[in-house]
C-alpha cells in the first residue's frame, strides 16, 4: 500500500517508531515540508541522509528505509530555524521522490503491519521463551550501559523494563544507545524483532567496553584534579596565614616564577650561567610546587642568582690615603704595607690587575687577621673571612653535588654571595691548620682557587658552571709554612716576625690601652698606664712575639683599677713600674741576663718557635764512663745528630783545644737542654753544643752575655740558619748584649729593625774557633791559632753589614 508524505531529510539522526524526538530544522526545503505537513494531516516521512554534509539531497543521497512521524509541535525561532517535536510511527520504504511547492514529496510503502504482533503470538512456545530471555538480557545490559553513560536519565532503564513487545523494546533501546548513524540505520532496516534485539545487544557490548575505559580515564583525571585543587587551596591558605602573621598590609609574595624570570633577564649572567638558569626554570615550571625536586631546583636557582654577577665595588686608587689607613690601623709591619701600596699603585696605573695571593706568616697575636681587614679598607673592597682551622672535607671548598640530599655550595661561593660583589678581599684564615681525611684533601682543592691562572674558571660541584675568581683578592694567614709545596708555590709569602719592645709600647699606647678603657667603661682620667709601667708589664709579665697576652694583661689591670674605683678606695689609678706588682701580681718572667754569672758548660743558644724566638740554654757535664754521649731534654732526631756531629768535631780537634784525647776513654759527656717537657729540634744549636762541650772539657767558663746560633759541620764551618729576626728579638728581650750569627746570615741584617741592630752587638762568624774565642772568658792557650786554616780566609775585621754595627 503506497502513500504520499512530505519528506524531511535528517543529517545525523535516525528516528525509530514510537519515539518522540526534538529536531532543529534550518533548510528551506525542510521548513517547507514541515509547513505542508502542518497544513494537512501533520504526518511527515523522516529519512536519514547518506552524507550529512549534503545540503540539497536527492533520491540517491537518502537511505531507502525511513519512518513516518506525526508533528506534535512546531516553533519558529528568531534566527529563522524551526524547532519541531516529532513522534515516530511506522517503518516505511521510499518508493519515489518528487518536488512539490518547494519541498520534497515521497511515495512510500508502509512496512510495519498491525498483524505483526498477532503473527508473533502464534509462534512456538520455545521461541517465545528464547525471546523473553533475550529481552531480559537486553534490559539488564542496558541498565549497565545507562550507569556508565551519564547522558541517559536514571529512569530510562526502568521504563524500558516495562515494555513487553520485543519490537518496541529493540527500537526504544536503539534510540537511546550512542552508535554511528549507519549502525542505527541497520537496526531500522531489520524487520525481525529477535534479530534487532541481538544486534542491539551486540552494539551495547561494544559500547560498554569503551564506556568502562572512559570511566577509568574520567576517575583518574578527577583524582588528579582534586589533588591539584587541594594543593592549590592549601597553598593559598598558607599564603593567607603567612600574610596574617608577618606580612600584614603587603600584597603577598608575588609570583615566584615571574620573579625568577625577571632576575634571569636583568642580571649580568655569563652565557653558561644564563643557559643553565633558563633550563632549570623550565624544569621548575613543569613540577608540582610542593614536590621535593622543585625545592632542590628552587634552592639551586636561589644560589645561582644570588652570586654577584658583574657587581664590583669601586676600588680606591689614592695611594696616600691607603698608606694613611694602613699606618693608622697598624704600627710597624712596613714590609706588608709596602707590598699593599705597590699593588694599589700598579692597579691605579693599569686599571686592571689579577688579584694577588698574599700569605701572611707569623706567630699568633701579631695582627695577621686584623691586617686583612685594613687591606680591604685601604683597597675599597668588601671583606669576607673564612677560617680554615680544622676543615678536613674537600666539599667545604668545592661544595657537594646536587645528587646528595641537603647538598650545599662550597665556602667560596657562599662567601661570594655574602660579600655581594665579585671583587672582595677574601681572607682564608689559618690555612696551615687544614685537616685531611678519607673524604678528600681540602688543601688540594684550594690549588685551583689560589692559582691566578686557573681561578677564572673555578667550578663548584653544586653549581657546575664556571665562576670567575680572578678579581678576588685572596689573603691567607698561617703560623708556619707547614703547607703542601704546590699550595705554597701559588702564594707570595710575607713574614710578620714579631714586635720589638719599643713597637709593643707604641702599639699599646696607640691602640690597646684605649680599647680596654672603652671596653671596661672607664672614664677619662680614671686609668693611666705610664710608659715605665707599660715596659715593666711587657718585660716581666709577657713573653710573646705578638701583643695578645699584653692586651689581656692590660685588661686585667683595667679590671683591678675599676674595682678599686667602684669600691671608693681610689678616684683614679696611675700604674707605674713601682706599683705594677699591686695590680698585676707576682712577676711571671725574668728579664735581663740569660745567666746570672759565667758558667762552665752553660751556653745561651737562640731558638725559633711558632710563637716567636726563645733563649735556649745548653748545658753539658762530664761524668765517669767510657766516652759515650748522653742527651736529655726531649730532643728531636735532627738535634741528636747535631750533638753527635759536635762531639765528633771536638774529638777530632781535641789536641788543638788543649784537651787530652785520653779523657774520652774515661769520661762520658751528658748534654741537657732545660725545659725538658718542651720538644726541641733543628740543627741551629750546633755552634752552642760545640762551645758547651769544649767549655766542659777545658774547664773554661762561657760568657753570660753572649748568645749564639748556627749549624756546624764536621770541619767546624758555621752554616746559615732561619728565623734570624725572631732569634735577635729573643736575645734583646733576654738582655743579651752580643750575638754570634753565621757569616752567610749577614745579608739578612738589612731587614732587621734599626733599634735591634743598634741594641745588640751582632758578630758574623765563619768558623767554630771564632765562636770559642769570643764566647769563652779565657783564651784557650793551647790553641795554635795559626793552625786554623779557616781563619786565614776570614775578611779583615770591622767590615759592617748594611745599616748596623757588626764586629769581627
Q: How many angstroms does the end-to-end distance come to? A: 154 Å
Global structural class? alpha/beta
Q: What oligomeric arrangement do these chains adopt? A: single chain
Q: How many DSSP helices?
A: 28
What is the average per-residue confidence, as pLDDT, rounded to a whole number? 85
Model regions low in confidence, pLDDT < 50 over at least 5 residues:
114-126, 248-254, 782-808
| Strands side by side in the biggest sheet | 18-19-17-16-20-23-24
* Largest sheet geometry: 7 strands, mixed
Helix content: 40-55%
Radius of gyration: 54 Å
Question: Mind explaining what this structure looks like?
Answer:
By secondary structure, the protein is of the alpha/beta class. Helices cover 43% and strands 18% of the residues. It is built from 28 helices and 24 strands. Strands 18-19-17-16-20-23-24 form a seven-stranded mixed sheet. A five-stranded mixed β-barrel has the order 1-3-4-5-6. A five-stranded parallel sheet has the order 8-9-12-7-13, sandwiched between helices. A hairpin with a 2-residue loop joins strand 5 (82-100) and strand 6. Helix 3 (125-148) packs parallel to helix 7 (193-246), helix 5 runs parallel beside helix 7 (193-246) and helix 18 (501-519) crosses helix 19. The longest helix has 54 residues, at 193-246. The protein is rod-shaped and about 165 Å long. It starts with a strand and ends in a 16-residue tail after the last helix.
Amino acid at each position: 500500500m503506497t502513500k504520499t508524505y512530505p519528506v524531511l531529510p535528517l543529517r545525523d539522526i535516525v528516528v525509530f517508531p514510537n519515539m518522540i524526538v526534538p529536531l532543529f530544522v534550518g533548510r528551506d526545503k525542510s521548513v517547507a515540508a514541515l509547513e505542508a505537513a502542518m497544513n494537512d494531516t501533520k504526518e511527515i516521512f523522516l529519512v536519514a541522509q547518506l552524507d550529512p554534509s549534503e545540503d540539497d539531497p536527492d533520491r540517491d543521497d537518502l537511505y531507502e528505509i525511513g519512518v513516518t512521524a506525526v508533528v506534535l509541535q512546531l516553533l519558529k525561532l528568531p534566527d529563522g530555524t524551526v524547532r519541531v517535536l516529532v513522534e515516530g510511527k511506522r517503518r516505511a520504504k521510499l518508493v519515489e521522490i518528487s518536488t512539490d511547492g518547494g519541498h520534497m514529496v515521497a511515495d512510500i510503502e508502509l512496512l510495519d503491519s498491525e498483524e505483526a504482533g498477532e503473527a508473533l503470538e502464534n509462534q512456538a512456545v520455545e521461541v517465545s521463551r528464547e525471546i523473553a530471555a533475550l529481552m531480559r538480557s537486553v534490559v539488564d545490559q542496558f541498565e549497565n550501559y545507562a550507569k556508565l553513560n551519564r547522558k541517559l536519565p536514571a529512569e530510562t532503564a526502568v521504563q524500558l523494563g516495562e515494555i513487553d513487545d520485543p519490537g518496541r523494546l529493540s527500537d526504544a533501546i536503539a534510540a537511546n544507545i550512542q552508535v554511528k548513524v549507519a549502525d542505527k540505520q541497520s537496526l531500522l532496516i531489520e524487520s525481525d524483532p529477535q534479530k534487532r534485539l541481538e544486534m542491539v545487544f551486540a552494539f551495547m557490548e561494544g559500547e560498554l567496553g569503551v564506556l568502562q575505559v572512559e570511566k577509568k580515564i574520567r576517575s583518574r583525571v578527577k583524582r588528579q584534579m582534586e589533588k591539584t585543587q587541594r594543593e592549590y587551596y592549601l597553598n593559598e591558605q598558607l599564603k593567607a596565614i603567612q600574610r596574617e602573621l608577618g606580612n600584614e598590609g603587603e600584597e603577598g609574595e608575588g609570583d615566584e616564577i615571574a620573579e625568577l624570570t625577571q632576575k634571569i633577564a636583568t642580571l649580568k649572567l655569563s652565557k653558561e650561567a644564563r643557559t643553565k638558569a633558563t633550563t632549570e626554570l623550565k624544569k621548575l615550571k613543569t613540577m608540582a610546587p610542593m614536590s621535593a625536586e622543585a625545592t632542590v631546583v628552587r634552592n639551586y636557582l636561589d644560589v645561582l642568582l644570588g652570586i654577584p654577577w658583574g657587581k664590583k665595588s669601586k676600588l680606591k686608587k689614592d695611594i696616600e690615603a691607603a698608606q694613611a689607613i694602613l699606618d693608622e690601623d697598624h704600627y710597624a709591619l712596613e714590609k706588608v704595607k709596602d707590598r699593599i701600596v705597590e699593588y694599589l699603585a700598579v692597579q691605579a696605573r693599569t686599571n686592571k690587575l689579577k688579584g694577588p695571593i698574599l700569605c701572611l706568616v707569623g706567630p699568633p697575636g701579631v695582627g695577621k687577621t686584623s691586617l686583612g681587614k685594613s687591606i680591604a679598607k685601604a683597597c675599597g673592597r668588601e671583606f669576607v673571612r673564612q677560617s680554615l682551622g680544622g676543615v678536613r672535607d674537600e666539599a667545604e671548598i668545592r661544595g657537594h653535588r646536587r645528587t646528595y640530599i641537603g647538598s650545599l655550595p662550597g665556602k667560596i661561593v657562599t662567601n661570594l654571595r655574602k660579600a655581594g660583589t665579585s671583587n672582595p678581599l677574601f681572607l682564608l684564615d689559618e690555612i696551615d691548620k687544614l685537616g685531611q681525611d678519607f673524604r678528600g684533601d681540602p688543601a688540594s682543592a684550594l690549588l685551583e682557587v689560589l692559582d691566578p691562572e686557573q681561578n677564572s674558571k673555578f667550578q663548584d660541584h653544586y653549581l657546575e658552571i664556571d665562576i670567575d675568581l680572578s678579581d678576588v683578592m685572596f689573603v691567607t694567614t698561617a703560623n708556619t709554612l707547614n703547607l703542601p709545596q704546590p699550595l705554597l708555590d701559588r702564594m707570595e709569602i710575607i713574614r710578620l716576625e714579631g714586635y720589638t719592645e719599643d713597637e709593643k709600647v707604641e702599639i699599646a699606647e696607640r691602640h690597646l690601652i684605649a680599647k680596654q678603657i672603652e671596653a671596661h667603661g672607664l672614664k677619662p682620667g680614671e686609668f693611666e698606664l705610664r710608659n715605665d709601667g707599660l715596659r715593666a708589664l711587657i718585660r716581666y709579665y709577657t713573653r710573646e712575639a705578638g701583643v695578645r697576652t699584653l692586651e689581656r694583661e692590660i685588661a686585667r689591670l683595667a679590671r683591678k683599677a675599676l674595682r678599686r674605683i667602684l669600691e671608693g678606695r681610689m678616684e683614679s689609678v696611675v700604674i707605674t713600674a713601682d706599683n705594677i706588682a699591686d695590680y698585676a701580681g707576682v712577676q711571671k718572667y725574668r728579664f735581663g741576663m740569660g745567666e746570672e754569672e759565667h758558667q762552665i758548660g752553660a751556653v745561651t743558644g737562640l731558638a725559633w718557635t711558632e710563637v716567636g724566638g726563645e733563649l735556649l740554654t745548653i748545658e753539658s757535664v762530664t761524668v765517669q764512663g767510657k766516652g759515650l754521649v748522653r742527651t736529655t731534654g726531649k730532643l728531636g732526631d735532627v738535634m741528636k745528630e747535631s750533638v753527635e756531629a759536635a762531639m765528633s768535631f771536638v774529638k777530632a780537634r781535641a789536641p788543638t783545644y788543649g784537651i787530652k784525647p785520653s779523657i774520652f776513654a774515661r769520661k762520658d759527656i751528658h748534654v741537657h737542654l732545660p725545659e725538658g717537657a718542651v720538644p726541641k729540634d733543628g740543627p741551629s744549636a750546633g755552634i752552642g753544643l760545640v762551645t758547651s762541650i769544649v767549655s766542659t772539657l777545658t774547664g773554661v767558663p762561657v760568657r753570660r752575655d753572649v748568645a749564639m746560633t748556627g749549624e756546624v759541620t764536621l770541619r767546624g764551618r758555621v752554616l746559615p740558619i732561619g728565623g734570624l729576626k725572631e732569634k735577635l728579638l729573643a736575645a734583646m728581650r733576654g738582655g743579651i748584649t752580643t750575638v754570634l750569627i753565621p757569616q752567610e746570615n749577614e745579608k739578612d741584617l738589612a731587614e732587621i729593625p734599626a733599634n735591634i741592630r743598634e741594641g745588640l752587638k751582632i758578630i758574623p762568624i765563619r768558623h767554630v774557633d771564632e765562636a770559642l774565642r769570643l764566647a769563652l772568658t779565657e783564651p784557650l792557650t793551647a790553641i795554635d791559632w795559626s793552625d786554623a786554616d779557616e781563619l786565614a780566609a776570614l775578611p779583615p775585621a770591622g767590615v759592617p753589614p748594611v745599616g748596623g754595627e757588626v764586629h769581627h
